[in-house]
Specification:
The chain starts with a strand and ends in an 8-residue tail after the last helix. Helix 2 packs across helix 9 and helix 4 packs parallel to helix 6. It has one domain: Rossmann fold, CATH 3.40.50.1110. Strands 1, 2, 5, 6, 7 and 8 form a 6-stranded parallel beta sheet that branches. Strands 3-4 form a two-stranded antiparallel sheet. With 224 residues, it is α/β, with parallel strands linked by helices. Strand 3 and strand 4 form a beta hairpin.
Length: 224
């Protein structure tokens, strides 16, 4: 059975009442993947904004594998120390990673964030040498549209991320860089300038799906 682990920040964990892009991806693979698969990870909850904690199980569609490694306000620097144990215990085959906005916004500059990317990849491979990963660049967000300095940081990090994925890719543990979601718009694909709404969820899921299909022949073309 193929075991996929979604890894990310608030855009991946989602909040109470949401479907999440994880669900959209699961539905896509149910329709296109020719074998058994599941989502894995040490966490299952959504973020509850009222409680200000990841304690909700109120998914818009609960009947799918909800496991993940995502957290509201968490980035590469938070996930790098824990990814080895998570991969080892879940026996993950593929990591679907969407991180970076939190790091750049609150913790680290592009170069420091890139070092945490390298530590993350090394930790995952130490736990499972043949693990594969699809990494999503930092996608458009409201801060980057109004803060030119931050937009430059995002662009710089995305360039460094592409180079890192190319440098560290290897046959036994393939790395893919997903393309930025086509026509992603903070006004129409998010509900607050950052977090995806329904169309945004589909576009993020599509970015991962197309990378896996084109890079590994896994699944099929995304149809939403």
């Amino acid at each position: 059975m193929l075991r996929l682990m979604p890894v990310g920040d608030s855009m991946t964990i989602g909040s109470a009442g949401e479907h999440t892009w994880r669900y959209r991806m699961w539905r896509h693979l149910c329709a296109t993947h020719g074998g058994p698969f599941t989502l894995v990870g040490p966490r299952e909850t959504l973020y509850d904004k009222g409680a200000d904690a990841p304690v909700s199980y109120l998914y818009a569609e609960p009947d799918f594998p909800r496991a993940h490694l995502a957290g509201w306000g968490e980035g590469w620097q938070h996930m790098a120390p824990m990814i080895g144990q998570a991969v080892r215990e879940a026996r993950a085959d593929v990591l679907l990673v969407s991180l970076g906005l939190i790091d750049l916004g609150f913790y680290t500059d592009p170069e420091q964030t890139t070092q945490n990317v390298r530590a993350f990849i090394a930790g995952a491979r130490a736990a499972r040498p043949r693990v594969r990963m699809v990494v999503l660049p930092v996608i458009p967000n409201i801060r980057a549209t109004s803060d030119a300095a931050f937009a430059t940081q995002v662009a710089t990090f995305n360039e460094l991320l592409a180079k890192t994925v190319a440098d560290l890719d290897e046959p036994r543990s393939s790395l893919l860089l997903a393309s930025l979601p086509a026509s992603y718009d903070v006004d129409t694909d998010t509900y607050d300038g950052t977090h995806p709404n329904t169309s945004g969820e589909h576009k993020i899921a599509e970015a991962f799906a197309e990378a896996m299909y084109q890079g590994w022949g896994l699944g099929g073309a995304y149809e939403g």
